[in-house]
Structures are given as C-alpha cells and as structure tokens.
C-alpha cells in the first residue's frame, strides 16, 4: 500500500528477458492473425505470484499502459462471470458489477471504440479469456482476445475455429513461460552449486558465511552477495534490524522473498511499501540499484538471509532469478546446518577433553593429597615396630592420628561433594533453623579460633527458618566459617552475619562471612569453587586442605537455587556473600 492507503501497482518488467518477450510478441501477432481478433494480450505468471503483461499487439494505448506491469493473481471474476466456451471464458459486459469494473479500470484497458451495434455485437467491455495451463493443470499465463474483426460476440462455432487455428500457439506460450521459469533458473543454480562445492569443508558458521558470500558473488556475477545468519549485526540497518528480522522470518514461513528497489519494496503475497530509509542507506553504501532477500531456514527454524545485490545500471530481478535464489538458499541452509554440527562436535570434543583433563588433574590431586598422610602412617608404623622411648611413641601416635583424620576429612568431603552434586539424590527437605545452625557452628569453631589468636564475631537475627537439606546446609555453613578461620593469621578477625533479605521479590536469608586473612588473587577468584582447586599462593598452600570445601558450598547453595559471591583482595581479606530463598528448591524459579 502507498502512504495514503491506495493500492500500489506491483513492479513491472520482472518476467524474462528481451529476447523472450520478443518471441511472445511474435506469437501474439500470429494469434491475432489466426483468430481474426485485432487485440491480443498475454499475461505470464511470475514466481512472486503476480501476473505480468508480457506481450500486447493491436492497441498502442493498451501496450503503453499495461505492458510490463503486473497485477495480483485474482481469477474470481473470470471464473464466476465468464461463460465457459471450449476452454475460453467469455465475459459479457452486462455481467460486470461495479467492483469488477473498478478492478478492470486499474489492471486492464478499455479500448476507446464504440459498440458494433450489430445483433449479438461485441461490446468494448466484453472479454474473451483463456487460462493457459501446463499438462499438470498448473496455471502459467492468461491469453486475452479483444475487438473481433467480425464485430460479433463469440459463438461455439467461432471458438472451435479459434482453437483449431491457434491451439498450437497456446501450448507454445505455456512452453515459453515454463522455459523462462526453468531455463535461466537451472543455469544460475548450476553456477551457484559449483561455487558452493568449492567452499572448504569443516568450517564453522561464521567462516562458512564469509566464504559462501565471496564464492556466490563471483559465480553469479552480482555486485554483492551476503549470507547473513539470523541475529547477526548488519551495519546501516540499526533502526530496522528487529523489524527486518521479523519480515524475513515471516517470509520463511510462507517460503517467500523480498525485492528491495530504491522507491518500493516488495514481498511475497504482500502489498508494496515505500522502501525504508535504512534499506536505502544499505543500497547507497554498497552502490546497489536493487536487492533480493531470500530467507534461509530448515523446518520451522529461520536460519538467516541470502542477500543479493545488483548494480545501479543492472536490470530488475526476474522470476527465474528469484526461483534460482530460492533453490540456492535451500543449499545454503544445508551447509549452515552442517556447520552447526561441526561447531557442536568441536564444542563437545573440547568438553570431553576438559572432562578428561579434569579427571586427570583430580587423580593427581587426590594422589598428592593422600601421599603425605599415608607416608606419615607408614613411617610411624615402622617406628612403632622398634623399641622407642614412651615420649616418642606418643609423638608417633599423635602423628598417626593427624594423618588418619586428614584422610577421614578428605573422604568425608568427597562423599559430601558427590551427594550435593547429584540432582537425583532426593535429599529430604525439612524446615531448617538457620539462626541456630549458624550460632551453633560459630560456637563450635570459637575454641579453634581462640587457639589460633583469631577474633570471631557473630551477628545472627532470630527466627531465620527456611526449607531445605539440613545436612547440606550444615556442611555449607561449617565450611564457610572454618575456611575463613583457616586462612586468617593470628591477630586477625572473622565476622559472620545472617539477616533476612529479599531478592527480586523472593524472600530469603543472607549470610555474610568476612575475614581479614591472606586473600585470593584476582585471577583465581573465578576458580575457587572448582573441586580440588588449590591456590598457587605459597602462603595458602601451607594450610592443609582437600580443595573441596568451597566446591561443597557452591553446590549446596545452587542446589537450593541461591547465589554465592566472593570478593577478595590479596593481603586484605575475603568476603563470601550467600543468599538462600526461604522456599524449598522445587518451588523456586
């Protein structure tokens, strides 16, 4: 539609080339001679669903007005108003209603001649129309006869004579239209497929798009060809990026296309619109006269757009080119899907390598962590076999106890990590008094902190109750506080607070644990929640540990749909901020 709401005539000269039009013009002249009608017009069906007048003989006014122009494919008035006559439809003027007359005024031509005045005489508003179909019954065009030299309306005998004289020409017109539909189309598709075959295999989506664009541009002899993935940024299209993506997605759903010209833009089965400024800028930026946009997709999924551009002095896009571009777009879609599979395979391989590396590192870490306590166990067992003074026996027994406890802690942490990492474990969800849990854990660690010369400050609000896994939450709080104490030097301070806190309208509890200990390097902050991670800091490595405590904290918190955040600075200290929703995990989005 134009801005004032009026119908905008579809673009012209979209069917065939000049030589094909010249052949149809000659056929139309022959039809006029054989049928004894002065005016003969041929409309060809284009790939965009419009009919275009491609040959008109016998009326200069009609040729000037209608040749090369197009109209929507509307056959209702022909089928409903026309009288069937051996493959033809005669539409007498007295059957025309106001709506049909308005249609004919817009898309047809009424000759400026008087009525014949003869009995059964031809009226200037009369029409004799034949729908031209191929052997499969598919419409390929329409043939119009006007102004019979006899001045009379057709009779069955006259129509039979017309068919006998000119019937072979009807088939010739269908053949020419189909040859235009498929001939140039086959040539373009062949060139494009050869170019596609030359693209390197095994490319990812982005590299594939780049290579395809260059290969198709060279093969099809166009000013520009770009294969644009869905969601990609297109320079100069910022204002209409979203709307154009929606347009192309709709075109994929209806297997259509969009033709962009400087004044008007056309899409399949839709009225024309004034070309948006952003598309005009694109044409100007690349020095193009017009563009053809064909959606790329697979099934219901829109994958991107095949954008083809023509130079300023190049002809308009014709039906066979549009058909060819649609076929090429299907080939491109197949390559895009293959490139996606390549990327997914590479990502999966990388993930598998990462898992393999992780398992390798985990085994090495476990071996390293277990080696020391096991070595202590064997050394002191050997000593106990010898005759030692009582004080040395006591020292060995103490060492054995420490080694055994370290192994026990590691086994306990491993079992806890496995438990809280298993989504199918089905832990019992109960009401957990987090106020009591934090206070009791703090009291338990007070003596440890005091022996280490560390001040432990606790501020916990009353009545903090949530629904969750009691065992997991207890382990999380214990690890949170003991980790802070372990990495804080004598004379330091650890403070823990627990308060009600809502996030995004969800009620919850916030636990904050702050220490002024050794801190964590900035490049290691994102790694500390990984199982078995141990800091490279010598000062941190002097503290014994399994590297599982923080991993357990993260698993428990995320298992309750909460969040854990760490802020840390070397030499200043660390702050762990945990937020947990009050509702059970299966009720939290």
From TrEMBL:
Organism: Nocardioides flavus (ex Wang et al. 2016)
The UniProt record lists the keyword Transmembrane: no
Subcellular location: Cell membrane
Keywords: ATP-binding, Kinase, Nucleotide-binding, Phosphoprotein, Transferase, Two-component regulatory system
Signal peptide segment: none
EC number(s) given by UniProt: 2.7.13.3
Keyword Transferase: yes
Membrane-spanning ranges: none
PROSITE patterns in the record: HIS_KIN
Main localization (coarse): membrane
CDD domains reported for this sequence: HisKA (cd00082)
Listed Pfam families: HATPase_c, HisKA
Listed PANTHER family: SENSOR HISTIDINE KINASE GLRK (PTHR42878:SF7), TWO-COMPONENT HISTIDINE KINASE (PTHR42878)
Histidine kinase domain residues: 365-584
Superkingdom: Bacteria
UniProt-listed SUPFAM superfamilies: ATPase domain of HSP90 chaperone/DNA topoisomerase II/histidine kinase, GAF domain-like, Homodimeric domain of signal transducing histidine kinase
Protein name: Sensor-like histidine kinase SenX3
Record's catalysed reaction(s): ATP + protein L-histidine = ADP + protein N-phospho-L-histidine
